[in-house]
Amino acid sequence: MCNRGAACTFRHDNAAVGGTVKTTKQHHNKKYHKQSSAGNTAAASTAAPPSKPPTTSSAYPFVSKRVFDPYKAKAITLAKGAQDQEDRSAVCTAFRISEDGLVKEEIADPPFFSIDVECIATGYGSCANGINDGCDNEGKNGADVPEGMYNERSHRYPGRVAMVDTDGNVLADIVIRPPQDGKGIVSYLTPLTGLTEEICLGADAKSLEEAVQTIKGLLPKDGVLVGQAIDHDVEWLGLTPGKDFARMVDISEIFRQRMPFNLNEASEVMKKIESGEIASPSSSGDVSSDEYLGFATRYRHFSLRHVCLNLLSDDIQSGVHNPISDASYSLKLFHKYRNAGVTQLRIVRDGLHRAPPTP
Predict the structure, then answer these.
(1) What is the DSSP letter of 130?
(2) How many contiguous H segments (helices) and E segments (strands) does the chain have?
(3) What is the pLDDT of residues 145-199, one digit of tens each?
(4) DSSP code of 203?
């Protein structure tokens, strides 16, 4: 029985906890069904007082609408277990094992960096795959511009880029001047980026080509880029893994939560396995795969703000987004959790999943 009383926000099953609330027909458009009316209130006022008044720990004003399903619970648990078995070698510290298996030597880390790009709008849509300068993409024919960097359907163009090293030192903070003095810009998205026309067309602003060359000059060939959805930033700047830097690490993959793609279908699979209608998965395959589980899974990704707020108690994006801050916190989270154990990561992911949504 719950002992939190009125402080508990969970909708308990009154039959299970010994409650005395009477259930009646409920309207579908009501969140909760009121258990009293003018009629029964009047009747209660004339009735004899109860010998013992009900306490909040033994009577609950809500009717449970959700019944525990052990098969759904098992599917959720199996999806988490499969995530525990996923390969994390791209994130964790590497070690070299001697031939006899007796010596374990840590391999020196490559240099880590983080970049973060704040974009301005060249259209009214939300597509951010590649960039579009709003001026017929005049830069797409430039030297060393990779295929896919420019996209006619995109509505974004880089407005500011910051680069931070593994110790948090700011290596670059560049405001980018849009082509043709901002002719193709429809909004500088000032509430989010802090950028304005005056800033982006100011004397300190650089062209995208100049900004990219600066970043490339600071980034060693063996460097590893770390960030939240870092592939977008890399694409917006036209950087190429294996050429301009070694590889990239998306920290959202550390904290994402794996779950059944369709919980009802996964529950049915669990029932069929238990009844013998379908065979149990073979332990010889990849235990982290959907094929092994027998049902499809997906990931719930969390924003950088949500992770920082719940794991570091820092609200980094309550107002204008600062690319220096975003890059710095990406590295901070990466170093704190890159070598975390399976149990710790399970606790962290569950906490992020259950935490109230972050705007």
Answers:
(1) S
(2) 14, 9
(3) 998 899 999 999 999 999 999 999 999 999 999 999 999 999 999 999 999 999 9
(4) T
